[in-house]
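quick one before i forget lol
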Amino acid sequence: MNELLKNFTGTKVSGGTPTTDENGFTIHGLACPKYYFMAVLAQKGDSFQAIGFLVEHKEGHPRNPSADELKQCAVSIDELEKKTGIDFFCNLPDNIEEAVEAAYDVNAWAW
């Protein structure tokens, strides 16, 4: 995922106002990603489950999101792989990898 946060102007904070240019870089030349992501795999015995999170970088996200707010960012690992170009859990046997990456169940996780 090479999408950067372009033409962003944030809320003024001590030390200045966070901004990015038309290419997605800060005034100091740092690339600012448009999305943050995480892939989680859990194993209990012989059973596996996975869930992905894709969070857009924007103002207004709480620092300590609630479970409901996190659930809104949940995606399948397949969707996360399409967005990022990364093959997560490639070391799993193919039959397990395909099953856990295809779907997710937010109710299967302890929030």
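fyi The chain is about 20% helix and 20% strand.
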